[in-house]
Design brief:
Two copies of one chain form a homodimer. By secondary structure, chain A is of the alpha/beta class. Helices cover 40% and strands 9% of the residues of chain A. Chain A has a single domain, classed as HUPs (Rossmann fold). Chain A has a five-stranded parallel beta sheet, sandwiched between helices. Chains A and B meet through strand 3, helix 3, helix 4 and helix 5 of A and strand 3, helix 3, helix 4 and helix 5 of B.
Chain lengths: 243, 243
């Protein structure tokens, strides 16, 4: 009953970060465009700022991809606990591996986002939902693990008359691998947004900034991103390597 | 890894219809109250009217159950196709088994609602989510089938550090069975709301009204509901039995 992958008829969950934008480029490439193009879906669930989604909108527009934005703030407000949504909680600084980063976890976020993406796919007659879970996510986000994707795939197959294919091609890749793929496809990294802070440029101090800088470093790809305090990140990465 | 059922620490999805209110009474009974009580959760996803949720609110208040309402209208608006949400589409009249009733299906609704309920359960430290899928739902709603519940259970187990137990005790029962259980527990059926129309009293002509009337009839339980046109329903039920 599992549906086959159909990139030309897919919905791609895009946050606006480099992982999901690389995935969008990848799906667009697989679709060969002439056969159709993915639809990009961003879900606003009450993130601290709109920068990521604005980045996704800009990139989608520039490559002619339809970009759907769902406002799910009402849904998430009632159980927000993470610093991503509560402006009174300061954004934790430091390496992602630190305990402090668990503050940024929204309960059951991925199942909620994927269930909406599946809903959109069904309503638009599309049989594939792609999302950019990757191996680096697993330690802190339980719902990024391959086992979770498999289980949700099974549910997605049964959730509608025709099943929906859940596709997470980066699930066993590191963020550095994704940077490598993206560089090969000409992803405009400078237009993607990772930082938890919604300032003019990336802060260089929060977990996602550090992770981003580290990924470019490992991949050996030049990082076109402007950071407020890249030295902080580099120092944190060095110290974490020493442990 | 599957969590054990804990009714005193559960979230019960309540629409305000008789199935979910009966489930709420059932979970409350299992919880023995002194050990704690379920939280009721209603999700407004853009139903044609607010009557059902208002019914849930009234009943929860009267029995001292906390009632959380999530506004998910923004999420559902973008793929609404069903007559439940689009006021320009007339509510289909007739028996649920009719093709016309597929108009009332919201794509992937149950996965979306359950994923939010799981999110609330996690954020409130509750390990059980109960919902009132029943055997009569299956023919038209694919995501009410036991296989779907099992698959989503597996995903729920993996979606968080501790798994969440998905509990659908009525999944193999008919609506008539539920009426029987409810009658035994003193469920105030007159305060529950099933009708797709949001008028003062139940219309008696839409699929849910007909199904409701039929369930009381089969259960042999007196139906305290006031209907605008019960004769239409009884006639439809008779004709459907003749086929």
């Amino acid at each position: 009953m599992e549906k086959k992958l159909d990139p030309a008829k897919s919905v791609v969950l895009v946050s606006g970060g480099l992982d999901s934008i690389t995935l969008l480029y990848y799906m667009r490439k697989l679709a060969f465009i002439k056969d159709g193009a993915p639809i990009a879906l961003s879900i606003h669930y009450g993130q601290r700022h709109f920068r990521e989604i604005a980045s996704a909108a800009k990139i989608c527009h520039s490559i002619g991809i339809e970009h759907v934005v769902i406002d799910a703030t009402g849904a998430m407000e009632c159980f927000m606990g993470g610093s991503q949504m509560d402006l009174s909680v300061p954004v934790p600084e430091g390496h992602y591996a630190d305990d402090s980063m668990s503050l940024t976890v929204v309960p059951n976020r991925n199942m909620i986002l994927l269930s909406m993406a599946i809903g959109l796919a069904i309503s638009r007659g599309r049989g594939t939902v792609a999302y950019a879970a990757h191996a680096g996510d697993h330690p802190i986000y339980p719902d990024c693990r391959p086992e979770f994707v498999n289980a949700l795939q099974e549910a997605a197959n049964l959730a509608w008359y025709d099943g929906v294919h859940l596709y997470a091609p980066f699930i066993r890749d590191s963020k550095a691998d994704i940077v490598t793929y993206g560089a090969g496809m000409g992803v405009p990294f400078q237009d993607t947004w990772s930082c938890y802070q919604g300032k003019d440029i990336h802060c260089g101090r929060c977990g996602t900034c550090i992770e981003r800088i580290e990924a470019f470093q490992i991949a050996g790809v030049e990082d076109p991103t402007q950071y407020q305090d890249k030295e902080f990140a580099l120092d944190t990465i060095r110290r974490s390597a020493d442990v």
